[in-house]
Amino acid sequence: MAHSPFSRRALPLAGAALLSLLCAAASPVALAQPDWPQQPVTLIMGFPAGSGVDVVARTIQEPLAKQLGRPVIIDYKSGAAGNIASEYVAHAKPDGYTLSFGTAATHGSNAALYKKLPFDVEADFVPVSPVLDVSNVLTINPDVINVKTLKEFVALVKANPGKYNYASTGNGAGTHMAFAEFNSRLGLEMVHVPYKGGPEAITSVVRGETCCIMNQVQTVLPHYKAGKVRLLGVTTAAAVPAVKEVPTIASSGLPGTKGFDSSIWFGIFAPKGTDPQIVDKLNAAVKAVLEQPEIRERFESQGNTVRIETPAQFKKTVHANRVKWAEVAKAANISID
């Protein structure tokens, strides 16, 4: 019986080809889901409803849903400076349907403050896209600490070490770290009073329970316009158009304030292992939302700056942020546990 010359020679090649196909089928690229999403996408929010970060997330919620063609749901898992939400997402299925709406605190300073986190803020997440750079502003209640300039504020606090209480939106939050960096640079002794979120923290200042806070411009703006609080200095390197009359802390000329830039960012993260094609599709959708004039104008009118980056660029931003806040935490001797 004659044997086909193909049979013996081709079998090893056919086996190799089959093995190659099987390996390709198991690769992330082959498992890509070009038809993603097929169901609602959930943003896990680590801070209370009504907080500054929540307002930002809700602003892009519907426009993002339109870009993706599926509903976008915000699920609140607040507490522990956003760590509860971060842990949930870190252990979620990496299918693109469960995402974290994170901050410079949840994916930066928390790593320096909490020594026993059940996740790694970089290794266990895939940075998808930033959304905003957010300026904080030193906000005071003049009935509690009656000063009109940053220099007067510093002089009065230095003359009364330990007398004045400042509020924050939680241990390790950006509002806490900004004030901690400020106090460390200027050698001020103040008492930190953490609250559960932005609404409670700014309310404590308005009511006079605390003297001041470094809170987001968008959060304090209504109280400022109502004449209930006074703004002494923004934490960004450049002035904020929404409150252009308020100088930067860096321009005060006070020792220790040169180069002061304590802005924070908000952004979206996916669990480790999420398909790169899904990440890229998400990034493109967020970019399309942020490029809409009405969205950009709304954010800028609230004192924020839109930030557009690729996933690779955002990854570098996250790493640099983590390094910066580790240095601040060490200099200010801050640790939560």
Layout of helices and strands:
Layout: H1 5-26, E1 41-45, H2 52-68, E2 72-76, H3 83-90, E3 98-103, H4 105-113, E4 125-134, E5 136-140, H5 150-159, E6 165-168, H6 174-186, E7 191-194, H7 198-206, E8 212-216, H8 217-225, E9 230-234, E10 264-271, H9 276-290, H10 293-301, E11 304-306, H11 311-332
Parallel strand pairs: 1-2, 1-3, 6-7, 6-8
Antiparallel strand pairs: 3-10, 4-10, 4-11, 5-8, 5-9
Helix pairs in contact: 2-9, 4-11, 6-11
Features:
6-stranded mixed β-sheet, 2 domains, 337 residues, D-Maltodextrin-Binding Protein, domain 2, 5-stranded mixed β-sheet, alpha/beta, 42% helix, 11 helices
Describe this structure in words.
This protein is globular. With 337 residues, the protein is α/β, with parallel strands linked by helices. Helix 2 crosses helix 9 (276-290), helix 4 (105-113) runs parallel beside helix 11 and helix 6 (174-186) packs across helix 11 (311-332). The protein has two domains: 41-134 and 264-332, D-Maltodextrin-Binding Protein, domain 2; 136-251, Periplasmic binding protein-like II (D-Maltodextrin-Binding Protein, domain 2). The strands form two sheets. Strands 2-1-3-10-4-11 form a six-stranded mixed sheet, sandwiched between helices. The protein has helices at residues 5-26, 52-68, 83-90, 105-113, 150-159, 174-186, 198-206, 217-225, 276-290, 293-301, 311-332, and strands spanning 41-45, 72-76, 98-103, 125-134, 136-140, 165-168, 191-194, 212-216, 230-234, 264-271, 304-306. It has eleven helices and eleven strands. Residues 1-32 have low confidence and may be disordered.
